[in-house]
Amino acid sequence: MLKYSLCFLFLLVQCVVVAQVSPFITWQRCYGGDENDYGFAIATSDGGSLVIGSVESNNGDISGNHGIPDCWLAKLDPAGNIQWQRCYGGSGLEYGMNAIELIDGYIVLALAGSGDGDLFFNFPSKRFWVFKIDFSGNIIWQQTYGGFGPDSPKQIVQTSDGGFIISGSESSGNSGDIMGHHGTSGSDLWIFKIDSIGNLLWQKCLGGTNTEIYGNAVIDFQDNIYVSGITTSSDGNVTCYNQISKKNGWIIKLNNSGDILWDKCFGGTGVESLYSLNFSNNKLLLTGYTSSDDYDLPGNFGNYDIWVMMLDTAGNIIFSKNYGGSSPDYGYTAVFNDFDSRIYVGGETWSDDYQVSFNHGYNDTWLLCLDTTGNLLWQSTFGGSFFDRDISTIIPLGNSKLCIGGSVSSPDGDIVGLHGDTVVNIRFDIWLAEINLPTSVNESLLSNNTLKIFPNPSTGTFQIKMEIPETKITLSVFNPLGETIFQ
Fold first, then answer.
1. Which candidate, 438, 470, 464, places its Cα nearest to that of 450?
2. What would the pLDDT profile of 460-480 be if each residue is shown by its tens digit?
3. b/e map of 243-277 (b: 16 or more CB within 10 Å)?
4. CB of 237 within 8 A of CB of 207?
5. Is the dihedral of CA 441, 447, 451, 455 positive or negative?
6. How many whole angstroms separate alpha carbon 411 and alpha carbon 245?
7. Does 481 reside within a domain?
8. What is the pLDDT of residue 460?
9. How many structural domains is the chain composed of?
10. Which end of the chain is more exposed for a tag (fewer CB within 10 A), N or C?
């Protein structure tokens, strides 16, 4: 509901208009059972979503768990109702990492730790598990890849020829499918390509004699591949690491055959993590966290800040900025929304100062809205009195709404329907919510006069102040759809 006050305007009389515009959760739901359940969602072509996660529960929304935990998939309709769900795995540890919708089903990337159940064929155990399912969740084909050590899958993307690029990190050394490991210890980034039915076409280790981790990947319109990670090496494939600046955010560009075109290092002298990598509008959008206050990351607010960086396809920085408060803040994903030409960043915050306002409990899920140069336009926390973390789902819905999601353990605040008993033991559910985007005010400056709007856009109360000569004016406030909400 709008609340406002009107003033009659006389010569150089100041007028203040106050309006109330708050984010509104259209629907929200917790998914899970009595144990710890984690996950995120991707958009599907029918307007719904597919949840990918790892679950320990075998009750509530979850049935058919093979062990603790299983990879879990759940198909949701546009209102968040479960259409079907299924657990995948064996008696060991399985984690759902990512999925892509295809014309005839989905292809899923998971971490495998079993040699029984759905993974009866996986002996000796390989960790990169790729399986294709139909639209009802039935497995069509599956294959595992990697070496015989603790490898970590991260991302799967489809190429223009119908194949798939899969990326992550490996600690197996030269074993199984892995060749070209750098050094005698530590981990490398690992990337490989398969065809449409899972045949391995090529593979490549990326790194040096020390440790490289994460390994997200995206492709551009020419099927060039970009891989992001963290490096502590200064040899091998790492040509950019400097012992003085210690920038350890590492980006590598490869062609569609896996040949390295360039690599670049980003960050500062503190600790960095690049957790996610997205490609949109011919730009690379990276998200993570940092404790640096120099080089590519001036202006740390305290402890760890969320780090968001945009690059062009040549690896040049368009912007690199950090966001947060005096306590730890972590970034997990960022997406570009074509509807309003904004960047939305998901993470978690333990802060309640500087750029963070209204933390509900210990830590909250945190959503930020940026313009295309990285300026913070608004922010909003979601959660309750316990531990709520990692917005890793941001789905633009093609209008003034987003679907967001994270992992929550609060039974109160913004969270309704938590399955676990938080009073006795902290238990996490997967949480998804549809939200309306906050109202933005168009600041049209009056000639020879001042007009100030703050904050803009607003997630709560905003003020409009102006000094004008004696005249008649019309003041209009619009929402992101262009609809007049006050005049």
1. 464
2. 556 666 655 444 455 666 655
3. eebbbbbbbbbbebebeeeebbbbbbbbebbbbbb
4. yes
5. positive
6. 44
7. yes
8. 54
9. 1
10. N
Dist CA 347 CA 392 (whole Å): 7
Distance (Å, whole) CA 218 – CA 149: 25
Does residue 244 lie in a domain region?
Answer: no
All residues at 6 or more sequence positions from 81 whose CB lies less than 8 Å from its CB, including other chains: none
**Bridge-partner residues for 214, per DSSP?**
229
Q: Is the pLDDT of residue 441 over 60?
A: no
Name which of 83, 94, 90 is nearest 53 in CA terms.
Answer: 94
Q: Return d(Cα 455, Cα 443) in angstroms, integer.
A: 11
Does residue 465 lie within any of the structural domains? yes
Residues of the domain holding 483:
1-22+438-487
pLDDT tens digit sequence for 77-127: 999 999 999 999 999 999 999 999 999 999 999 999 999 999 998 877 899
The pTM is what? 0.86
The answer to whether residue 34 sits within a structural domain is no
Closest CA to 192 of 230, 225, 229, 221: 225
Residue that wins the pLDDT comparison between 151 and 487: 151
**Both tokens assigned to 125:** 């155990």
The one-letter amino acid code at 82 reads I
